[in-house]
Amino acid sequence: MAVVLVVEDDRATCELFRLLLEGEGYQVATCSDSLQSYPQASELRPDLVVLDLVMPGVSGREVITWLKEDPRTKHIPILICSAAMGELERLPPSVLQQGVDVLPKPFELDDLLSKINRLVCPVGALAPG
Asked: Which of 62, 49, 68 is nearest to 90 (CA)?
């Protein structure tokens, strides 16, 4: 079963992600504190991180940089789900080429599932569950 770590400070959105992804057969871990997301990802080693960019404390772009610079987590794909897409301009372009995809909020649920399935199960791989 594929594991998805959802890093989202809005509890309602986080719960929506959890319910939707569990319904699709994913195991879901959540983290509402961006500062704790890096150690949680390092320990859990999920198959995907779904990440908001604007959160209190540490920004999502800092989390992306940490994850992509650490040899233990740099291979983990990241799906950025955020309404603040201007924050992407502050990321080094090389980071966006390392298994990072983007889905602006608000989004359609079908688009979300399509991107997650593609990131977790590349063409030729088995589906989760």
From this structure: 62
Of how many residues is the chain composed?
129
Is 127 domain-assigned?
no
In this structure, are residues 112 and 78 in contact, taking their beta carbons and an 8 Å threshold?
Answer: no
Is residue 17, in this structure, part of any structural domain at all? Answer: yes
Residue 88: the pLDDT is 65
Residues 31, 6 contacting (CB under 8 angstroms): yes
Is residue 29 in some structural domain? yes
Does residue 129 lie within any of the structural domains?
no
Question: Model's pTM, two decimal places?
Answer: 0.86
DSSP label at residue 77: -
Residue predicted with more confidence, 99 or 32 = 32
Are 71 and 49 a contacting pair, CB within 8 Å? no
CATH number of the domain residue 97 falls in: 3.40.50.2300
Count of the separate structural domains present in the chain: 1
Q: What's the whole-number average pLDDT of the chain?
A: 85
> Which residues are CB-neighbours of 40 under 8 A, at least 6 positions away?
5, 29, 31
